[in-house]
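Appendix B. Extra example for self-study. Work through it before the problem class; the solution is given directly after the inputs so you can check yourself.
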Amino acid sequence: MSISMHSASAPVFVRMFSNLLVWLDKAQAHAEVRKFDANNFVGLRLAPDMLPFARQIQIASDAAKGCMARLAGVEAPKWDDNEATLADLRARVQKTIDYVKSFSAAQIDGSEGREITIPMRSGEPLKFDGEAYLKHYATPNFYFHSTTAYALLRHAGVEIGKGDFLGGR
Amino acid sequence: MSISMHSASAPVFVRMFSNLLVWLDKAQAHAEVRKFDANNFVGLRLAPDMLPFARQIQIASDAAKGCMARLAGVEAPKWDDNEATLADLRARVQKTIDYVKSFSAAQIDGSEGREITIPMRSGEPLKFDGEAYLKHYATPNFYFHSTTAYALLRHAGVEIGKGDFLGGR
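Solution. Structure tokens for the complete assembly:
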């Protein structure tokens, strides 16, 4: 017994992004109670030299999308990073969930040893086998940006807690 | 082919906590350049009703420790959460790495179907099989607190970047 590559990837991305949709609901509700434009969340940053909320979600989306495509050995679709509203971000998250779900287990399973090459903006590309890529690059990158999106909302006063992060209750 | 439960857990925790030791080095160096007490990081919070830096590391430590113990079916040691300095936190992170490494693959592999029960402070305990516990509870909880620790340092001006988060370069 062990974990298949599909089981270690697709449900992890789908669950966390489904949780993210709940955080967006709570951000929207928070803005309505406090009577500010919910789209003000889109540009929030934890520090002036950190990426804004929308980019955190876009990069988490790309991490999940790119992971599924690379493990399956197909070309990932290119999505414009033009989300400007909370509704746009919700649609991006849902589109990502749908894309992840579009892969069958058979397309992903057996990709443990697949050679994965990630081009870098500068320097040598990163090379992994499929298992190391999933465990040490795609998954932590996905959680990094999902958690930073959560932290931004939490920092901004949205009433979300660990249960909303982990979901499934 | 597939991922073993040991391979999906131990190296993930060890790698991220090894990365965290580098962030602590950079936090220490930042404090020395700016001439403030590096232990000031220990109590930092992203919001007044969020847990401080030390607790983020303690909970990430407990997530890794508890995961290994539960998957192996042994009792986790209880560690006092009394870290008060950056050096204490470094020791806690190293102790966690050593504890995770103390498990053999044979102790963890085959735990996919093991029944895991997490007592909750209020309400019904959470129940998972080993695979769901690892993927949907222990791992996201570990990354949640590790990322929040990173975000706190980053927010406080420490010069760390994505490469320090992902490590291994």
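Self-check: Helices of chain A lie at 5-34, 53-72, 86-101, 105-108, 130-155, 162-166. If your reasoning did not lead you there, revisit section 3.
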